[in-house]
Design a protein that fits this description.
- It is globular and about 70 Å long.
- The termini are far apart.
- Helix 4 crosses helix 7.
- The chain has a 7-stranded mixed sheet.
- The chain is built from 7 helices and 7 strands.
- A hairpin with a 5-residue loop joins strand 6 and strand 7.
- The longest helix is centred in the first third of the chain and has 37 residues.
- It is of the alpha/beta class.
- One of its GO terms (biological process) is mitochondrial respiratory chain complex IV assembly.
- It is found in: Mitochondrion inner membrane.
- This is H-sco1.
Length: 266
């Protein structure tokens, strides 16, 4: 009985061994099985790990910020080139007459603020910015930057006269009390200027500033004003020197102003 039972076992062993030898022969001939090994599948899934996802998002955000900043820089450079070629830097600015909202108020609330003209910027380096008090983010950020610039310049050169000036492009809503209160959150030496629509349009034309406020704007209306975003540097003779865009950092502006002052003193 034992020899009879041993034969099926040998046949079974041969049947199992043949596929193994066939697989080994396929590997030697350069072919492979149609079913990939489990380890390959685990490696594919491992590419999308949490660390890889974080790195992917960080790189994407960095590239978006870089190209957005570069685009803004190109736009500002084109605008400055247009101002220089079309009008000439010495011609930027010109005469104006506006109300000085930040002059020392008298006890009479109905008294009209004194007039501030282009003659009043003579003798100082002026940083002129055009904006409006209802601006949600850009204007406050630029006014904060100008405040930091003036503070840095006063530390490095206390005798350097630098005057920050804010000119409203929203004459319908920016009354003298409104501008005075608005600028109290920034540098204490800020001069706030307003005028009627014709006066505002004239000074913006002199500085080549675009603004979208309509002449018949409703003072109680809820609207935003599109306008040029530049800080204009004027020398002590009232002549235009340079325009600093939104992407220009505070340190870059301070460095450039110091260079201009050195050239002026020579």
């Amino acid at each position: 009985m034992l020899p009879f039972r041993a034969r099926p076992l040998l046949s079974t062993c041969r049947a199992v061994a043949r596929p193994v030898r066939f697989q080994n022969q396929c590997r030697r001939n350069g072919t492979s099985s149609s079913t990939p090994p489990p380890t390959t599948q685990r490696n594919v899934v491992g590419v999308f790990s949490p660390t890889s996802a974080v790195l992917f998002i960080a790189v994407g955000a960095g590239m978006y910020f870089y190209f957005t900043t570069k685009k803004q820089q190109l736009l500002e450079e084109r605008e400055k080139e247009r101002m220089s070629k079309s009008y000439g830097r010495p011609n930027l600015g010109g005469p104006f007459a506006l109300l000085n909202c930040t002059a020392t108020p008298s006890s009479n609330r109905n008294e009209i603020p004194p007039t501030f003209t282009d003659k009043d910027i003579l003798g100082k380096w002026s940083l002129v910015y055009f904006g409006f008090t209802n601006c949600p983010d850009i204007c406050p950020a630029e006014l904060d930057k100008v405040t930091a610039i003036v503070n840095d310049l006063s530390k490095t050169n206390p005798s350097l006269p630098v005057q920050p000036i804010f000119i409203s492009v929203d004459p319908a809503r920016d009354t003298p009390p409104t501008v005075r209160k608005y600028l109290s959150d920034f540098h204490p030496s800020y001069i706030g200027l307003v005028g009627d629509y014709a006066q505002t349009k004239a000074v913006c034309k002199g500085y080549r500033v675009y603004f979208s406020t309509p002449p018949d704007a409703d003072p109680t209306g809820d609207y935003l004003v599109d306008h040029s975003i530049f800080v204009y540097l004027m020398d002590p003779e009232g002549k235009f020197v340079d325009a600093f865009g939104q992407v220009t950092t505070k340190d870059d502006v301070v460095e450039k102003i110091q260079e201009y002052v050195k050239e002026w003193n020579r």
